[in-house]
Amino acid sequence: MNHVLTRAVAALCMTVAGLAAAAPQTADTTVPVPAARATYQLATHEFDDYAYSYRLANGQVAEFTTQDNRQYVVVRDHGMIMNALQAKRATPVQLLAVGPGKFVTRNGVELSFDNDGQMVTIANFERLPAAKVAPEDAGKPTLAFR
To answer: Cβ distance 130 to 76 under 8 Å?
Structure first.
């Protein structure tokens, strides 16, 4: 009797294993890859309209520069006198042009210049190094003016 029961259990296990292998896979094994944004080729000296310091309402300053045909933004705290040590620690973030007056960073910051470069709107400002944002303002667009 033990022998018959053992064979029946083995047959049942083999049947269940076969059904499980034949069942369609429902687990999603794909990895989402963000779509690449179209790039925009800046004309010579086009960034010159934006290469300035822009003051934010929180007292910080976003400085835009060009170096070796690449555009960068650096966020700094400015009081009456800028701390020289802070200037050395500032981390520039490369900007990628996506349209006239429109830039993004690799970590999702979006920048849009308006009024002939007099104003910049920064989405996801909190993602920039040294950016200070109140918790209730996280995710809200930040405005800065020359």
So the answer is: yes
